[in-house]
Design brief:
Layout lengths: L1 E3 L6 H9 L3 E4 L2 H9 L7 E3 L6 H10 L2 E4 L2 H8 L8 E8 L2 H4 L15 E2 L4 H10 L4 E7 L9 H17 L6 E3 L13 H16 L6 E3 L4 H4 L5 E11 L2 E6 L3 H4 L9 E4 L7 E8 L8 E9 L6 E5 L20 E5 L2 E6 L4 H5 L5
Parallel strand pairs: 1-2, 2-3, 3-4, 4-5, 5-6, 5-7, 7-8, 8-9, 11-13
Antiparallel strand pairs: 10-11, 10-15, 12-15, 13-14, 16-17
């Protein structure tokens, strides 16, 4: 299990993942350094992504990280003999056109993924051939991460089947198959992971031996979607041409950085007896007119000072929001048996501006 650091790189979260026995899955030099500073050994790191830096790439290989090659420049680095000692064990990321494997599941349509080496045009076979010419390099794994629409187990069993066929066609003896993430997160999900395990492992056994091949998965959103909540107060309420506008301390830049959601899991604890309002448009604090979080229909009237709780907002909202100059990032707390403990304070204005004031 490799914890996807990019999903939520909050230091406490990453340390907790290590305590629970996870490896760290990283996609950049910064994340690689972050994981090491938080206690991960280099051989406990899975290094993915298309923008690896040269020095970090070399350091990860020397340290025994699981390095999944994603680009021709990385193949070129290996061909240039960046490291004379060997063997250097690398994985290859496979470019997946999910629509051909499981019709109707692709998030990118017929064009497929933009990552890894394409099988259909021969690039994957060419990458295998070039790396096989290098006496110091061993192709040790296959990486097949891809996101799907429904995240059903059938998607992952199809990926395993594809990995098995590639290994047979290219005569690869790999010690690991990395399926990446993209698993179902949130609730209800009580039985989801048993279903994933059954679907994936049954297919794995058709092609690979459990004694010789390790299954790697990289959950991020699947484990972070549920446990984090965002708390915000109502700042202002006004009526505009029949629409009740509720301005809050929340914002799409923090709760919906991709600007794609039309609803959230919202709860509030209000005094009894509040009249119900037919429509209330919940909005954020920014000056963007598109900062509209959701529409409440036939719900108790919200007033200034009311507290709102947005649940299931742990995935990507910590790392994928812009440093909007209007407001700095909110505080992060961990809820424990003895109350809440501050994990990270608000960012300083100087941090956002990139300078210190005189």
């Amino acid at each position: 299990m490799g914890y996807s650091v990019k999903t939520n790189p909050l230091s406490w979260m990453v340390r907790r993942a290590k305590q629970e026995g996870y490896f760290a899955e990283v996609v950049s030099d910064y994340e690689y350094e972050h994981a090491i500073k938080l206690g991960f050994n280099k051989n406990e790191i899975i290094f993915n992504g298309p923008i690896k830096g040269y020095e970090t790439f070399c350091d990860a290989l020397r340290g025994g990280s699981y390095v999944n090659v994603d680009s021709w420049r990385e193949v070129g680095w290996l061909e240039d003999g960046i490291l004379s000692e060997g063997p250097l064990r690398v994985g290859l990321r496979v470019n997946i056109n999910l629509d051909t494997l499981v019709p109707g599941e692709s998030r990118t349509g017929a064009s497929g993924s933009r990552f890894g080496f394409c099988v259909e045009n021969g690039d994957f076979a060419r990458a295998v051939a070039r790396l096989r010419r290098l006496s110091s390099v061993e192709i040790d794994g296959l990486h097949l991460h891809v996101n799907s629409l429904t995240r059903q187990p059938k998607v992952f069993s199809a990926l395993v089947d594809y990995a098995g066929e590639l290994a047979e066609q290219n005569q690869l003896q790999v010690s690991y198959v990395d399926l990446g993430g993209g698993f179902f997160g949130g609730y209800p999900n009580l039985s989801a992971y048993e279903e994933y395990a059954e679907a994936i492992c049954c297919e794995m056994r058709r092609f690979f031996s459990p004694e010789k091949t390790t299954l790697i998965v990289e959950p991020g959103g699947a484990i972070q979607a549920t446990p984090v909540s965002f708390h915000a107060k109502v700042l202002d309420v006004k009526d505009v041409r029949g629409e009740r506008i509720v301005v809050t301390q929340a914002s799409r830049v923090w709760l919906d950085p991709t600007m794609s959601k039309s609803s959230h899991r919202l709860s509030f604890d209000l005094p009894k007896g509040r009249r119900r309002v037919s429509r209330q448009l919940i909005c954020g604090f920014t000056c963007m007119d598109t900062d509209r979080l959701m529409l409440l229909e036939d719900q108790p009237e919200l007033k200034v000072g009311d507290c709102l709780t947005f649940d299931m907002v742990g995935a990507y909202t910590y790392c994928f929001n812009p440093a909007f100059f209007i407001e700095v990032r909110p505080r992060f707390y961990r809820r424990g048996a003895n109350g809440c403990v501050l994990l990270e304070g608000r960012n300083r204005l100087e941090d956002i501006r990139g300078c210190e004031y005189e």
